[in-house]
Amino acid sequence: MTHIICFGDSITRGENDSEKGGWANRLKAYCMELFLKNRKNEICVFNMGIGGETTEGLVKRFVNEFDTRLLKDGNNIVTLAYGTNDIALLNDKNTVSLEKFRDNLNLCIDHALKQKATVYLINILPILEEESTTKKRAIEDVVKYNDMLLSIAQKQNIHFIDVHSKFNITKEDLLTYDGVHPNAKGHEKAFNLIKEAIFSKSQLTS
Question: What is the pLDDT confidence band of residue 168, given thresholds at 50, 70 and 90?
Fold first, then answer.
């Protein structure tokens, strides 16, 4: 058996995907379908996304919620998809500084690795800066925080999933009115990218 525990914000939770409830829920349905077909190697997906969450919120709940869903005798995978709310501007400063963002993620990654889980770090999707109707975000901060995510992945020797570059070319077709959240088509694309990365780099078979 395998547990895939998906931590993130409203994008992981599936906001604005009226068809199937987001990429993590699409992954859950896909894994259920696999099990019903082959009746072996059950893969349970847990959607741990919370709307509006930053890495400050993540560190407060990660150990308890991760350990609760940890398989003692099985394969554990955790995905971390953060940054969209960390970069949001509050009084002309990022809600969570780049250094604190790094430290928060490293704390959670260190704990997961101690539990012998496989960790996947997912970078920040592109934004339509001129369309943002809620929190203000800057494209240059997306780039800066994504560079930090890649650096964390390299230093921690964990998997890195680049969804940003795959979205950036046609982002206008993949994001909703707010310029931040993927639409159903965008969530489907994210699901396929994340599924491909997890299934190609682990013992899982599709």
Answer: confident
CA atoms 164, 168, 171, 176: torsion sign: positive
Amino acid at the residue 84: T
Cα separation, 89 vs 98, whole angstroms: 12
**The amino acid at 199:** F
Q: Which spans in 69-120 are helix H?
A: 98-114
d(CA 11, CA 85): 10
> pLDDT tens, 34-90?
999 887 789 999 999 999 999 999 999 999 999 999 999 889 999 999 999 999 999
Q: Does pLDDT of 186 surpass 80?
A: yes
Give the distance from CA 60 to its chain's centroid: 17
CA distance 8 to 194: 14
CATH superfamily, domain 2-200, is SGNH hydrolase (3.40.50.1110)
Residues sharing a CB contact under 8 Å with residue 32, sequence separation 6 or more, in sequence order: none
Q: Indicate the domain borders of the chain.
A: 2-200
Instruction: Look at strands 75-81 and 89-90 and give their pairing.
Output: unpaired
**SS3 assignment, position 90:** strand
> Regarding beta strands 89-90 and 93-94, do their DSSP bridges make them parallel or antiparallel, or are they unpaired?
antiparallel
Q: What is the pTM of this model?
A: 0.94
- Closest to 10 in 3D by CA, of 60, 48, 47, 50: 50
> What amino acid occupies position 24?
A
